[in-house]
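ARCHIVE CARD
CATEGORY: sequence design from structure
SOURCE FIELD: tokenized fold
FIELD CONTENT:
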């Protein structure tokens, strides 16, 4: 199961610089002009998790395979994108394929780096992109409502329910509110996924600041924090310039020393990964043995068969039980044998809801 976050923003806000730093590649060309990223660049990053190394040491594993999160660097957007301006159509198509949006906002002043609107105002920039996404959603939904209205005349309950959701979404968009602001019940959630609405995706605002503001933020980041709070959204502060420098350092000691000198506890990557996991409602479970210790990504609330299916569909189809050890028990009793002897290994069935950090071994029929 792959999860990805689309990195979006106006031109020249630091998207590609951030992407390059996060993925430690130079795949995305960072340049001081709009549309330097023509095709979406895709990079996978390991999810930082100290637990996997601890488990691997106890299991004496030959290999350690961390969980991964995918980032997609998407071409810069301008006003009129919903009508095809700039690379609008391509931008909208690319973002539609992602699971969540990481919206990079420029929160630094630099006369050498052009801003498409001539001044730095992250709240205005956020509104520009959100407006374009809402206009695109409204156009898409209006067409779908017309089609669904004709089908709903048959009285089919499912169609009527879908139409009701669509109309609520349209009403919100016409009021200038994103689709994610509409309250959706658990039963209605499957319908919304098929709509593929841009403003229905969870969003994280990333404030890109100068090095000197990375630890404390500035007036621009405070404005974004207020906006995010009003929306019930998340925001974090990072410096793409700092992330670029960290990406080039080979020693973990050098990285830690560099961060400490700037008054920072951790790299921005860790913040974004955690925020991305939270956005997508994700968690991690582990499998461990002499060959490898591996982290697997699942959604919070997934049951044991679904978790097994992430490894292989046959595991889910033929699921019998999950031999389960909670992470604290695995550590306290020094691995599977110790946990089993202490009565801490449990046999869980199909209704077991997997917990973050569980160490699992699946039994299944071939």
């Amino acid at each position: 199961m792959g999860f990805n976050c689309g990195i979006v923003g106006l031109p020249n806000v630091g998207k590609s610089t951030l992407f390059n730093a996060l993925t430690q590649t130079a795949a995305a060309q960072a340049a001081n002009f709009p549309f330097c990223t023509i095709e979406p660049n895709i990079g996978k990053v390991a999810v930082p998790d100290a637990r996997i190394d601890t488990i691997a040491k106890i299991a004496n594993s030959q290999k350690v395979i961390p969980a991964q999160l995918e980032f997609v660097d998407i071409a810069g957007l301008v006003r009129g994108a919903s009508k095809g301006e700039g690379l609008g159509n391509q931008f909208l198509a690319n973002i539609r394929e992602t699971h969540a949006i990481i919206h990079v906002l420029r929160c630094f002043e630099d006369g050498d780096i052009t801003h498409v609107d001539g001044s730095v105002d992250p709240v205005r920039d956020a509104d520009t992109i959100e407006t374009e996404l809402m206009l695109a959603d409204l156009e898409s939904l209006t067409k779908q409502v017309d089609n669904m209205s004709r089908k709903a005349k048959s009285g089919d309950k499912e169609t009527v329910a879908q139409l009701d959701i669509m109309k609520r979404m349209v009403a919100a968009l016409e009021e200038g509110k994103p689709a994610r602001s509409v309250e959706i019940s658990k039963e209605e959630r499957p319908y919304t996924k098929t709509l593929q609405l841009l403003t229905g995706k969870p969003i994280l605002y990333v404030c890109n600041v100068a090095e000197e503001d990375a630890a404390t933020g500035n007036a621009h980041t405070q404005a974004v924090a207020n906006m995010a709070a009003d929306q019930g959204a998340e925001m974090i502060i990072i410096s793409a310039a700092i992330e670029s420098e960290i990406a080039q350092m080979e020693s973990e000691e050098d990285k830690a020393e560099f961060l400490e000198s700037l008054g920072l506890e951790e790299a921005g990557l860790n913040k974004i990964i955690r925020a991305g996991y939270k956005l997508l409602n994700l968690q991690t479970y582990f499998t461990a043995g002499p060959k490898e210790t591996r982290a697997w990504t699942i959604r919070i609330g997934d049951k044991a068969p679904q978790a097994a299916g992430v490894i292989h569909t046959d595991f889910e189809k033929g699921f019998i039980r999950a031999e389960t050890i909670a992470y604290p028990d695995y550590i306290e009793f020094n691995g599977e044998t110790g946990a089993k002897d202490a009565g801490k290994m449990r046999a869980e069935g199909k209704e077991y809801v997997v917990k973050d950090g569980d160490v699992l071994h699946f039994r299944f029929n071939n």
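CARD ANNOTATION: The radius of gyration is 23 Å. The first strand starts at residue 4 and ends at 8.
SHELF: design records, drawer C
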